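Hi C.,

You asked whether I'd gotten around to modeling the 345-residue construct. I have! Everything is below, sequence then structure, no commentary in between.
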Amino acid sequence: MKLKLENIKKSYGAFTLNADLELKEGEFHTFLGPSGCGKTTLLRIIAGFTAPDSGRIYLDGKDITEMPSEKRNISIVFQDYALFPNMTVAKNISYGPETRHWPKERIESRTKELLEAIALPGYGKRKPDTLSGGEKQRVALARAIAVNPALLLLDEPLSAADEKLKGVLKAQILETHRKNHLTTIYVTHDQEEAMTISDRISVFRRGNIECTGTPQEIYFQPRTLYTAKFIGQSNILKGKVISAGDMVEVECQGQIFKVQNRSYRYSAGDQVILFFRPECCTAAQGNGENIIKGKIADRTFYGSRYTCSVNTDCGIIKVYDTYPFKLRSAGCQLAVRPENIILFQ
């Protein structure tokens, strides 16, 4: 099902949520941002638990803004899973179909199918308090999709899981999403989760959707400085435009950078900010464009690579290196390609 949010607004005191967004059918879309930025508020508005102050919600072209939550055919998995403690695993899963008065045979068949899908075929008679955290999460997911929802909402479902379990549960969520071709919205503050699980990501900031794009677009071509700083590690330098055209030349503490012009809005004298990722900065030899000289201040080990902080005339630049080291502590040269630098004003 397609989802369209049109001019959604919701205020709580000084906080105001504003949202315009469209989701494609079968898309896995993540709301990413820090606590208090409006992610869960918007999720609750979509689910029908919270009414917007204004704006409209369309699901597959139908206006559901005023529709009660129980009639929207939208399922949600909460952060704490919210399983019914007095019901067995099977009864938790079959709860939705039973409330919709499905035939008994269909309910039993669907429950059995889902128990096998979540790899818990012999757990139907057990109670939730006998399950591990990962098993509870899988049961909550099965209960959510039991009624074949038009839209699946996941509110930080992995926040309580350890790193090893997160990997297993992410795989389970993605398998469920793809197998059922569910349009899915996933809420998280974890950047790695968002980058590895999403078709597209909406980055939230203080009640607004800062930008929306694929993980690759969000990471390498962020449209706002906030997004550039918020996602991953970054190099941020201040500079001044000295010439503009197809290639912009920027002076930064005596260092000249050539930057591919993506907007043509720059003029000589403009104050700008240069942004590029550590992996876009490489060891260099000889002369060429955007050669930066410096000395390594420190190296931090991250398993498959090191993150190096390099002291240069234009500031500290972070760059990734692998052993045996290409960058030497006594002195090194870095290079960054013009197309890998983004300018912000």
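If it helps when you're writing up: The chain has a mean pLDDT of 92.

Thanks,
B.
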